[in-house]
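It is worth pausing here to work through a concrete case rather than discussing structure prediction in the abstract. The textbook approach is simple: state the sequence, then state the predicted structure, then interpret. We follow exactly that order.
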Amino acid sequence: MAETNRVPLTQAAKELGMAPQGLREYMKRGLIDIGMVLPAANGARKYNYVIMRDKLDKVLGRGIMQSEKI
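Step two, the predicted structure:
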C-alpha cells in the first residue's frame, strides 16, 4: 500500500463535504467504502482510519473512464 495513495481523514471529510466525526461514523458502520477502519494496537477504544485515494475518487465520481460513462 503506497503512502501517496492514502488521504488524511480530515482531507477526505472536506472533499466529501462532511464533518470528520461523521465520516468516522460512516466508515465504522460500513456506510461508505473508501478504506479500512482498524482498531488501535493498544486495545483502547480508538480506531485508525486508512482512506485510499482511488476509493475516495470513485465515491466522488472522479476518474471515471469514458467507456464507464455509457
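Step three, interpretation. The helical segments are 9-16, 20-28, 53-60, 66-69. The chain is about 40% helix and 20% strand.
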